[in-house]
Amino acid sequence: MNSLFLMSGDPLNHVVQHGFTVGEGIWTFPILTNHVFMQAVAALLLIWLLPMAVRGRRGMDEVGRLVPARGLNAVETVCITLRSQIFEPNLGKHTDTFTPFLWSLFFFLAAVNILGMIPLADWFSWVPGHWVGGTGTGNIWTTGTLALITLLMVVINGLKYSGAGYIKHFFMGPPYLAWFIAILEILGLGFKAMALCIRLFANMLAGHIILAVMLSFIGQAYAAKGAAAAFGVAIPVVLGSVAFNFLEILVAFLHAFIFTTLTAVFLGQAVNIHHDDHEHDHGHDHDHGHGHATAH
Fold first, then answer.
1. What pTM did the predictor assign?
2. What is the 3-state secondary structure (H, E, C) of the chain?
């Protein structure tokens, strides 16, 4: 779906931020960039399309109101599957609390990823500033902000729902090792957030760069050997680019799913500490009771 204009020029030009900035040099600060604009477009599309899909029903009778129509089948299937297969096993009794946030996260990431595959930058090249088009999640600041939100959600809700138990769970093992383990666990929280940030950013960025490099082979062949060579190179390159675009569609949804799933896992680990401790203690009591019964 990417434009054949990618076959010429700098392969990084279509993935970096463009837009109006204030300042110069190290103090340059972007006010409105193409990545910010595309995130706003994705959010507005979701606000418009999802309620429309949810309202779609087969009829107004008793049965028809319960039967989804049009796009709601797909949306409802995704929502129910995420809730039952991913959120509930990790969040338990807190599932309903975090499901709206996690659903919003998934659909937002999927929308931004898919919009980034549409060559809007070429379609709207006449717009001053080149701030239309691009993949918002191919920006480290975007994925870093989302990862920071996840980290804050984990820490704040861990303290809210688990209280002192959330702090105590960092100090594991014998007393002389507890502080060292606590430091490693706290660092682990940061590494988890970094992994979320870098995984999404790197995959979104790399896919577009690879596609641009592949298409640039056509222009290079034309410059070096002429039209016949360019045509010979174009056939495998275009076919490969089409196949790669289908792969990118899969990756766009896959990494939205991975980011959302890991967020649910990290939240579940933070808010279900008391439950885990209770099950652990119950298991020990059961084992002891079973041992006494055997002894008798």
1. 0.79
2. CCCHHHHCCCCCCCCCCCEEEECCHHHCEEEEEHHHHHHHHHHHHHHHHHHHHHHCECCCCCCHHHCECCCHHHHHHHHHHHHHHHHHHHHHHHHHHHHHHHHHHHHHHHHHHHHCCCCHHHHCCCCCCCCCCCCHHHCHHHHHHHHHHHHHHHHHHHHHHHCHHHHHCCCCCCHHHHHHHHHHHHHHHHHHHHHHHHHHHHHHHHHHHHHHHHHHHHHHHHHHHCHHHHHHHHHHHHHHHHHHHHHHHHHHHHHHHHHHHHHHHHHHHHHCHHHHHHHHHHHHHHHHHHHHHHHC
